[in-house]
Amino acid sequence: MQKIKVDKDYIEKRVRDILVEGVGISENDPSFKNTPKRVAKMFSDFFTGLDDDRPELENIIKRHFPVEYDGVVIRRGIKVFSLCPHHLLPSIFEVSLAFIPNKRTTGFSNITKLIENLGRKPVLQETFTQQIVDWMNKWLEPKGVICIVNGYHMCSEIYKVREGEATTQASSGLYVNNHDMVMQFLKLIKEEN
Fold first, then answer.
1. What is the CB neighbour count within 10 angstroms for residue 2?
2. What gap in Å lies between CA 38 and CA 57, rounded to an integer?
3. What is the pTM of this model?
4. Domain boundaries of the chain, sorted by first residue
5. How many whole angstroms separate alpha carbon 169 and alpha carbon 186?
6. Collapsing DSSP states into helix, strand and coil, what is residue 50?
7. Residue among 65, 88, 80 at smallest CA distance from 114
8. CA-to-CA distance for 185 and 99, rounded, in angstroms?
9. pLDDT digit string, tens, across residues 164-193
């Protein structure tokens, strides 16, 4: 994958051109005074996530430790803000996942950080869901991983393509083709705290 470099000055100038020349908004309109700068910062925040070789991810996956535990570890309700790659409109993902350690694990906050980092880019929900499973496998080499993402897509709401949530699921290892384990996971993530 190529190295991503976000040029905020370039983006700011082009957004200003779109607003003034493309849409006809006055440069003196106080409501839009800092909009190009804000959009450039947002693009910087959301597009750097396209680079899977960035140091934040490598620093996160270095954080693991040995464990003698072969039960299930579950994280649920991780909220991630992303962008739809088709319209560059917001998507909100709620992620729940489970894994069965294979002699190593990590802190719960590290799992959240990994998932948040993976979502900081324009990404299809299906791709995002699979990437979480792939990175968990690369990072912790567990006996199995399952991930469910519920997504709320602003583009769908605006264009009335579909209203409500979309759900995607990916799994690996012991969770693949194991109906009982999948059902146990679904039951556990739906239980009240």
1. 7
2. 25
3. 0.89
4. 8-50, 55-190
5. 11
6. helix
7. 80
8. 10
9. 789 999 999 999 999 999 999 999 898 754
